[in-house]
Design brief:
Length: 169
């Protein structure tokens, strides 16, 4: 019995050490990358196993998360409201989406510098990310492409600039 307890403690210490090393590899809260919810329903847990308590249940495919740590097949993610927890990588996709934030509707323009308004987006709307300049991002939703100010979306880094994202599922 004592031998079993010692083995259990050894495994627990190794688990804690490797988990700490993974989280310590990046400064606390640093975003490794952004991902989105692959499934219609996924659980955010307090730790990186299925035996950990469920903190939240997310029910919106495409909802964006920031990955802040990794352990085996688990990703520690942060939601737009700051909630953090662990999700299985099987529930997440590399497809980049953003969440419209702020108060009131925001205009989507035909180009990054402005131009005609092509659509309106309500706070809480989710859109697929296409491209970004320093101040705006091109998004796609409901067969409409438009440019939205970075200050009105969550799911893209302030310094991220790119012409096109490769299409991913």
């Amino acid at each position: 019995m004592t031998r079993l307890i010692v083995q259990f403690l050894l495994v627990a210490c190794l688990f804690a050490t490797s988990l700490g090393a993974s989280a310590a590899a990046q400064p606390p809260g640093k975003v490794l990358r952004y991902v989105s919810l692959r499934a219609e329903k996924a659980y955010m847990r307090e730790g990186p196993t299925y035996s950990h308590r469920v903190l939240w249940q997310y029910r919106h495919r495409g909802y964006p998360f920031a990955v802040i740590a990794e352990y085996d097949v688990w990703r520690r993610v942060r939601a737009v409201d700051g909630t953090t927890g662990w999700m299985s990588h099987a529930m997440l996709s590399d497809r980049r989406t953003v969440l419209v934030t702020g108060k009131g509707r925001v205009n989507l323009h035909e180009n990054a510098d402005g131009g005609a308004v092509v659509a309106l987006a309500d706070p809480g709307a989710i859109a697929t990310l296409r491209a970004c300049t320093r101040t705006a991002c091109q998004v796609h939703s409901a067969d409409v492409d438009g440019w939205i100010p970075k200050s009105r979306i969550w799911g893209v880094g302030a310094g991220e600039v790119f012409d096109r994202l490769p299409s991913r599922r």
